[in-house]
Amino acid sequence: MAAITRSTFTSLSLRNRIYVFLFSAALCLGQPPTAISQPLMAVGVYRDIPTPIPASSEILDLTGAFDAGRNFDPAGIARWDAELEKRVLPGVIALDRQTAKAGPVTHILAREATAAALHQSLAEGRAYVANHKLADPTGFAFVASNTLGVFQIGDSIPLFMDAKFTALLPAAAKLKLIHNGKVVASADGTKLEFTAREVGYYRLEAWRDVEGKLQPWIYANPIFVTATSGLRLPQSQVPDDVDVRRDIEYIAGTPDEAAKHKLDIYVPKGKKNLPVFVFLHGGYWRQGDRSQYTALGAKFAQDGMVVVVPSYRLAPKNQHPAQIDDVRAAFRWTVAHVAEIGGDPARIYVGGHSAGGHLAALLGLTEPGIKGVAALSGVYDVTTIERVFTDDQAVRKQASPMTYVKPGAPEFTLTYCQWDYLALPQHAEIFAAALKEAGVKVKLVYIGGESHISEIINSVNELDKTHRAITELVR
């Protein structure tokens, strides 16, 4: 199969203010079930824009496929399937909205409603078509997910063990998932799930019953499954100009907790009075360890900072507040001892990725003495996450960084990725808006071309956007 340029969308609607409903999808996709308690018009990095299509020579007109009677053209759909095995060929409706009279409409998924953004999204197949006469498609979602992140219409998802497809509809229909021209899964209702283990394209159709006859309602352009992720773990060797000190106990605990109450420190040799970066690992609060971040610690030390990487106790054995208690203890140890190894205790920054982003934000808003926070693809409202934060709503609110936003908080840098887990882009946007409203200096950084996992792997590269965001904050 030809190489496909990756792209992404996540959408609900621009037409109505509706609550984010994709948290149930996050659960079924095996991703952290994040939640935001206010209505949104979009989920993820793209908006769903019903619009006349921009002029393009590389499109297929699906207008004739929306009449199940005399005008329906199954041969045209078959030709589309044949072409999709070779290239991206977006299926669209050639009618504009006025001509269609609330019938078939092309929905382009773009970050903004500009001509350039719409052209780019259309060229990358980031679109679906829907017959509004049969039902309003507001709330339609078609995604594929694995450990790397969540991928949307028009994307290429690497076959990292598998790729789980999920389609959600706002109204019941007959759903069909087509892989390389053949139906591989079907469902009646508002949801379809399928785990793919073969490469190729996967596109979705939804049909509705009209007076006993099925008629096409939605045709989604494909998500492409590719063979490899292209990710390479960075080398974990410590360069000669960095001194590493491992397994330093930051707080005493029971013997079975001893390994998680230690930290590693990376220090540029021969330098003093350096800014300090305390990095907190991710892993859904249930996995991960400081030992996995040698490359990160060494690289940022080369950039001129003392890097402290602690472990912390993990859920579900240790539920909240065990994690934040541990990282708070690690931070306080750093304040007390970092001057001994060349760090400036007046310039201590904290950062973290994913669950570590949550902990960094929570620490930054509740612990004095922190100069700034770099939260990478973090979670800032955990009020729906029971498996880590108990079934007590008051406890989950107390564990949410959003609860503690206030004037006088340290400077924040927040990132979110193109192929992040569901709703994390909205977490970043809403959290950034709350910080800004409180008068806190905040920088919101969109990381295009990265998944939730590739962001942290690639952060050791000097030209990487996440790498630059951290080094610009820690100074």
Can you describe what's shown?
With 475 residues, the chain is an alpha/beta fold. It folds into two domains: 23-226, Sandwich (Immunoglobulin-like); 242-473, Rossmann fold (3-Layer(aba) Sandwich). 23% of the residues lie in helices and 32% in strands. The protein contains twelve helices and 20 strands. The protein has helices spanning 23-28, 74-84, 97-100, 115-123, 294-302, 322-337, 355-366, 386-389, 393-398, 424-437, 452-458, 465-473, and strands at 47-50, 60-61, 91-92, 104-110, 127-131, 141-146, 149-152, 156-158, 163-179, 182-196, 200-210, 213-226, 242-249, 262-268, 274-280, 306-310, 343-353, 372-376, 411-419, 442-451. Strands 1, 4, 5, 6, 7, 8, 9, 10, 11 and 12 form a ten-stranded mixed sheet that branches. Strands 13-14-16-15-17-18-19-20 form an eight-stranded mixed sheet, sandwiched between helices. It is elongated. The model is unreliable at 1-41 (pLDDT under 50).
